[in-house]
Structures are given as C-alpha cells and as structure tokens.
Design brief:
Layout lengths: L1 H12 L3 H16 L3 H7 E6 L9 E6 L5 E5 L7 E5 L11 H19 L49 H13 L14 H7 L24 H17 L16 H8 L7 E4 L5 H13 L4 E7 L3 E11 L3 E5 L8 E3 L20 E7 L13 E8 L3 E3 L11 E8 L5 E11 L2 E13 L4 E8 L11 E8 L6 E2 L8 E5 L3 E6 L9 E9 L7 E10 L4 E9 L2 E10 L4 E9 L4 E9 L4 E9 L16 H4 L4 E2 L5 E2 L7 E4 L2 E4 L1
Antiparallel strand pairs: 1-2, 2-3, 3-4, 4-9, 5-10, 6-7, 6-10, 7-8, 8-9, 11-13, 12-20, 13-16, 14-15, 14-17, 17-18, 17-19, 19-20, 21-22, 22-25, 23-24, 23-26, 26-27, 28-29, 28-30, 30-31
Length: about 650
C-alpha cells in the first residue's frame, strides 16, 4: 500500500502531454495577445526530454511562424515555464552545445527532485520578486562572431578568425547604447596582430558609424554596413587584447570593464563582480537591478575543461526569467533562470561540465555621467585587536581602539579617494573616526595596520563602526563595497566596551550528497564522468567542490546551490591505470561529502553501457563526425576537437 500511495503521489505531480500543450497554448496567447483558438493552432511539440522510460522532465513547443518557443516543465512542483523566447524556433538537431546543456540541466534538476528522499513542496516565489516589473530586451541586435563581423579580424594560417564572444558581447552593448558617440576616447594601442601587420603603435581610429550598422545582417547588407560593424568588432578585440585563432578567439573577463571605461567612454562606476562573493538571491537581485535600470550586463561563465563564454543579459520576466542574448545571431535568444547556468550533467559533448565556475558580470555599463554612484573602494579586511577596552571612570571616554584595515580600488581607472572608518549611530553616519587620502591605481590594494581610532564618546552602546569612502573633494561619504561583511557593533557597559561583528549572520550551508552516478565505459585512458546530486539543507552555498581520486586532487567544479535547493555537479576523470580507484567529493575546507569507488578495466574490454540516455545526434549516430556544437561534419581536415561516437578526438 505504501508503494501504491507513493506512486499515486508521484503521478499527481507529473504533467501530461495534454497539460503541457495547454500551458504552451496559454503562454502563446498571453505573449502574442491572440485568441485561444488561434493559440491552439499556433503551437507544435518540437521534442521532449529523453528520460529512458521515466516520467518526462520537460516539453519543448515551437510557436508557428517563427514566433518563439516555450519549455514546459514536466513536474507540477516547479515553475510551469522553464524558459522561452519571443522569436525564432528550437530544433534538437541543430542546437548549440550550451543550449543542449541548459536543457540537460533542467532534466537533471527535475529528476533529482523526484528522487529526493522526502516529499518536496512547490518552490514559492521569492517575496522580493513581486515588486519586480518586466524589462524588455535592451539589446536589439542579433550578431555573432563570423561574417561579416570578422572581416577586419586578423587572418591566422591563411584562415579568418572569429571575433571572439567577449568582443561580440561588448559590441552589441555599445551598439545598443551608441557609445561612444563618435570615436574612441583615446587611441587603443596596437595589439600584436596590428603591430606585426602595420608596424604602427596604435589601432586605426575614426568615428563609429552607428547609423550604418544593422540589427540583423542575415537579411542582406552593403559593404559599407559590413565594414562598419567589422570595425567596431576589431576595436573591441584590440581593447581586450583578444587572442585570435581560427578555432576560437579568447580574451579575459577582467579586461572588459577597463576597455569600456578607458577607450569607449563608459562610466567609471562600471565594475566586474564575481558571483562567488554573493548568495544566489543577492546575485539575482543585482542582475535584476541592472537591467531594470536600463543597463545590459555582460555575463561570463567558464567550464573547468572546455573554456569560457561571454553573452549579454538584458531583460527580465516575472518568475526570475532573464533575457539572454547568446551572441549567436539571435539563435536561441530567450528567457532563462540564471541558476540554470550552474547545473550541467555530463553528456560527452561540448562543455562536458557546463559553465559552472568563475561566473562574473560586468555591471554599471552606461555612458560616462561624471557622477559617482557606486562605492569606489572594496574592503578586504577589517580586524580589531584587542576587541575589549576598559575605563576607570564611567564619565570618561574609553581607551582608543586599534585596528587593521585593508581595501582596494575596484574602479577601472585611478582614483583619488579618501578612505576611513565611520561611527554610525541609529543607522546614520555621525562622524569619521579615521580617514586617509591617497591615489589608488586600478586594482591596487593597500593596508592600514595598527591604526588608532579617534574618540568614540562616552555613551554609544549599539553604535556601529563601518568602512567608508569618498572621492577627494567630495563632502559625502559612502559605505564601501562589502561593508556589511565588515561592520562592527559596540557593546558598551559602565567600565568595558566590546567590539563584536555586526554583520547579519548567515546560516552556514550544509551539503548532503543524495546520489552519485558513474557514467562512461570505465576503460583505462578514457574520460569517465561522476555526477553527484546534492541537496543544501543549510544556508546558500556559493563555492567550489573538489574531486579526489586515490587521495590526489583530480578536479573541481563551481556550485551555486541556494538554501533548501537541490542541484547536480559533474566531474571528469581519466586514469591510465586499471583496477579499483577510491574517489571522494569534498568542499574547500576538506570536509568529505561522499566517498565511493570505481573499477577501471583495460582498453578493449566490452564497455559497460552508460547509465545516462543521450539525445544529441553525436550519440544517435556513432559512425558520424560532429563538431562541438553538435553539428554533423565530414571527416575533419582542419585542426580542432571533434566527436566520433562517444569520444572526443583532437586533430
């Protein structure tokens, strides 16, 4: 009877094909303001998840006429709409690897929820989302990295090179804001390609021809229009020191903001933020605040083994759906949950582990307004020693406090700043206890050590001490970035004063490994995959998890698991040695979350069937070649990495 009741409960949470279609029809009607009858005619099932006989995890419906698509959840305990787009179509046979991984992550999340040992309630919407309003996509262009965008990029080995995803993301943001209004604010130094080709010290410099650029170049364009956008792309690439290659052009994310500020007239308040320093909720709030203010975000995320992708986040829909412009010529642009970018299961193609580490975002992207609205300085350390001081007479002041204080310039330009510690009474700044004026270069960090604070006063029980900063010459202090994590509260008695941490205590994360699956043929010299389903029964987790094999570190993954949430992480492992290997999954502190073993057999032994089902074309046709975007290709002749059956093969 127990199993029967559990089965009935599970079936009650499943979404049937008919229910999914009705949700898609309702969505199409709401998005396109059509009648119900018309909406019923406008959607068709493109495909559904391949769950190997288990309940369907999601359904994908296309809206006829290229009017977008909707991804419908297969479980009633999740949001009904997992992702959608207002234009274009989705085709399983022609799908970029990141999009396939997004869908795979939806499937993994829902399957993990269904396997959870205790009943899972529907996830309530965050209270803060109720006050959020929809933001239409800010970036209208549908650009990519190839023709005509790469026309001015350098050739390599006689072959054209793509613009690079960083340059494409920057260029689309700049085009949307028409910034700078004319040409670069200062000459861009020649990169090694330009210096080699021309011998000149600086890149060519003329006005950006915004009026000649098109939102969409697939509909036809003139040579003038092509060269206008190609010039923009090349300038962006040089500004971030792009490394050009026919197989993919790359640039570091930490050069995006300095390039925009130093050469393209962007606000000096712009900064690069790192997701690891924020909870899932804080990160979502911050990205929403940007797009709600009309500022597109350049979002960057990496895979431990397969590189990095930069794209634009520029819109919002209720339910924490953010609009993503992938930089693929409009293909697959749509609304997605940011958390979905964190959980990918291994499927042997493209980014095996997904974009799970080094998430960052360039925020504050707007033309220079000469108004400082963001803190100039980020706190990296604040400590009091001793934290207890005494006085002999309650009518007199306490002995001075001493502290050490470290901070850094997070701006993209040098700043002349005043930095100090402020005394806050009733939440308002009463006065600065110490202050120091200095010039800080971009990224420069400095430390005040053994500093003696000024007089606190006789009665200030409950007052707070927090880091403050301002530009030299300004009379208004601001709290530094990260101040909430470095504020202290005074507990004052008649003869003793104690300085205690005043930041709001956050519950510590507590990770529980619910399930571990080994995926692969377990043969020596081949990559094997270890996927762990993890539930966080504590506070929000943002950090790295590590794989150890036979006591040696074998890999790591980024994980962003909110409080009371379940997610999946995947590791890769290769051993040339046959036999039993003991592996463990550990956190950054070395706490062991799981320990197990795998048996590696010699090459040539009949492979163990994979425990996962695969929907990509590369696995349905083991005798055909595919590139890392899942597109079928003739037998490779050019250098690169390709898929044949289950294996990646490098040429």
């Amino acid at each position: 009877m127990m199993f029967l009741l559990m089965g009935i409960c599970l079936r009650a949470q499943q979404v049937s094909p008919g229910e999914a279609r009705r949700e898609a029809e309702a969505f199409a009607m709401a998005r396109h303001t059509r009648t119900r009858a018309q909406a019923h005619e406008s959607v068709s099932l493109a495909f559904k998840s391949d769950d190997d006989g288990r309940p369907t995890s999601y359904y994908v419906f296309n809206v006829d006429g290229g009017r977008g698509f909707a991804i419908i959840s297969g479980d009633k305990r999740t949001p009904k709409i997992l992702g959608y787009a207002d234009s274009g179509q989705i085709d399983r046979r022609d799908m970029p690897a990141p999009m396939a991984l997004l869908l795979k992550s939806y499937q993994q999340d829902i399957q993990a929820m269904r396997r959870a040992p205790s009943p899972r309630r529907a996830v309530p919407a965050l209270a803060s989302t109720a006050a959020r309003h929809a933001v239409e996509p800010i970036v209208k262009s549908k650009w990519n990295q190839l023709w005509p965008y790469y026309l001015q990029c350098p050739m390599a080995d006689g072959k054209p090179t793509p613009t690079g995803c960083v340059a494409t993301a920057m260029a689309q943001v700049m085009f949307a804001q028409r910034c700078p209004s004319t040409r670069t604010t200062r000459p861009i130094p020649s990169d090694r390609y330009e210096a080699h080709a021309t011998g000149k010290d600086f890149m060519p410099r003329h006005a950006f021809e915004w009026d000649k650029m098109l939102d969409d170049y697939k509909k036809g364009s003139s040579d003038e229009q092509n060269q206008a956008v190609a010039y923009l792309m090349r300038q962006c690439g040089a500004a971030v020191m792009m490394d050009y290659s026919p197989y993919g052009s790359t640039a570091p994310d930490n050069l995006i903001v300095p390039a925009l500020v130093n050469y393209f007239g962007y606000d000096a308040d712009a900064t690069l933020v790192i997701r690891d320093f924020y909870t899932t909720e804080e990160w979502t709030d911050m990205i929403y605040d940007e797009v709600a203010a009309g500022r597109p975000v350049i979002y960057v995320a990496s895979s431990p083994t397969d590189g990095t992708h930069a794209f634009v986040c520029d819109g919002y829909r209720q339910g924490d759906y953010f609009h993503v412009n992938w930089g693929w010529g409009g293909s697959r642009d749509g609304y997605f949950r940011l958390s979905v970018l964190n959980a990918y299961a291994p499927d042997g193609i493209g980014n095996t582990e997904g974009y799970t580490i080094f998430h960052s975002a360039a925020i504050g992207l707007q033309p220079e307004d000469h108004v400082v609205t963001r803190p100039l300085v980020q706190v990296t350390e604040l400590a009091f020693k001793p934290r207890l001081v005494k006085r002999d007479d309650p009518a007199q002041d306490f002995k001075p406090l001493r502290c050490s204080f470290s901070y850094k310039n997070i701006m993209a330009v040098p700043i002349r700043a005043e930095v100090g510690l402020g005394l806050f009474v009733g939440g308002k700044l009463e006065r600065a206890l110490i202050e120091r004026a200095q010039t800080l270069e971009p990224g420069e960090e400095t430390k005040m050590e053994g500093v003696t604070l000024g007089s606190i006063g006789v009665r200030h029980d409950g007052a707070a001490i927090a880091p403050i900063c301002r530009t030299q010459g300004d009379d208004k202090w601001m709290k530094c970035t990260n101040t909430d994590a470095f504020s202290y509260v005074l507990s004052v008695g008649e003869r003793k004063m104690f300085v205690r941490r005043g930041d709001i205590p956050q519950p510590k994360p507590r990770l529980r490994v619910d399930n571990v699956t080994l995926i692969g043929d377990m043969t020596a010299g081949e990559y094997q995959f270890i996927r762990a389903t993890i539930t966080n029964v504590g506070g929000s987790f943002s950090g790295q998890l590590f794989l150890y094999v036979d006591g040696e570190k074998a890999g790591y993954m980024g994980a962003y698991i909110g409080a009371a949430a379940t997610d999946s992480v995947a590791f890769t492992f290769m051993s040339q040695r046959q036999g039993r290997h003991v592996f463990s999954i550990e956190n950054a502190e070395g706490a062991k979350l799981y320990e197990g073993h795998m048996d590696i057999v010699p090459t040539g032994v009949v492979p163990i069937p994979s425990t996962e089902s695969h929907s990509s074309g590369a696995f349905r046709h083991p005798d055909r070649w595919f590139d890392l975007l899942g597109r079928q290709t003739p037998r490779p002749r050019a250098r690169g990495v390709y898929i044949l059956g289950r294996k990646k093969i490098a040429f």
